[in-house]
Design brief:
Elements (H helix, E strand, L loop, with lengths): L1 H8 L6 E4 L2 H6 L2 E6 L10 H15 L4 E6 L4 H13 L2 E7 L8 H8 L3 E5 L1 H4 L5 H11 L3 E2 L7 H8 L15 E6 L3 H10 L4 E6 L7 H16 L10 E4 L12 H14 L8 H13 L8 E6 L10 H11 L1
Parallel strand pairs: 2-10, 3-4, 3-6, 4-5, 7-8, 7-10, 8-9
Antiparallel strand pairs: 1-2
Helix pairs in contact: 1-3, 3-4, 3-8, 4-5, 8-9, 8-10, 9-10, 11-13
This protein binds pyridoxal-5'-phosphate (PLP).
Length: 325
Amino acid sequence: MSMKLQEVSDSPQITIQRLSDDLCSKYGVKLDVMRLDKVDAELSGNKWFKLKYNLMHAHACNYKRLLSFGGYYSNHLHALAAAGHRFGFQTIGVIRGAEPQEYGPTLQDLVKYGMCLKFVSRESYRNKTCDTFLSTLKEELGDFFLIPEGGSNVLGVKGCTEIVTGLWSDPSSAPDYIVMGCGTGATLAGVILGTQGRCKALGVSALKGAQYLEQNVLDLMAEFAKYEGIAPAVSRDSWQIYHDYHFGGFAKLTPELVSFMDEFTTGSGLPLEPVYVGKTLYAVHDLIRKAVIPEGARVLLVHTGGLQGVRGMEAQMQKQRNRAV
Ligand SMILES: Cc1ncc(COP(=O)(O)O)c(C=O)c1O
């Protein structure tokens, strides 16, 4: 296992691609996309970075079994199951909600990768961080290394600091803004720490009413500083989270969002998914239009992956296209 796990400890090849669209041309904005979706076929997107140190730590501590939490379409569980399969860990996915009669593409993959699935009620799922609930799971399933929902812990943040490694090797192409979707805020926390104020980091919440995200990010950064024994010296002015681009809530779609994504993908060839990346790109356009992102700025959109989830959302997307006609 360690030989193969070595692949994860090395830095992946990250491609940055220039996007040209009419709006950016109009405002003189240079928009690039960091294609984390292309980092690995299975451990794709920000998952690669959030899992990297978790997997290495679990291996170093001789854990054979990894457990985490997620929904029916979870990108995080998908990547964890793939990692378990590749590196020889047993994996357990605790899934929010009753077992569906028919498994969608994500759940089917989890099973294919050998993940053991445990469906729990939405009420029980809320206890995902409670010691008593976790002890009960250990009694039932045996000892495991716990990776929190979304891979959101200090090791996940540590991995995400590496997303921006290398961005300043050529200062002439360094961005003024780096933008990404937020679920738990772990990716943003890592990027803020890696960026160290050299550009502004913008998060776009995928959830409705998630005003707690700012505090999550601050807590994760403080935890990371403690873990690394460094001072948490990042100015609060160097980052911002936008809360108005959720389109009705987590994984909710509208005809406007789907038509924006369709048009963008047709024009640029960039594959998008609607839960995080499509909404974030929409936000970037809106912030340019509103001059929050000023004319002439260099913007780097982080494509955080999640494309596997599109398979389970096709019908919902088609419904929005039909509504638009
Ligand atoms: C595709 C994608 N983008 C962005 C995010 C948000 O990441 P975070 O939870 O670190 O904020 C997630 C969730 O992990 C995701 O699956």
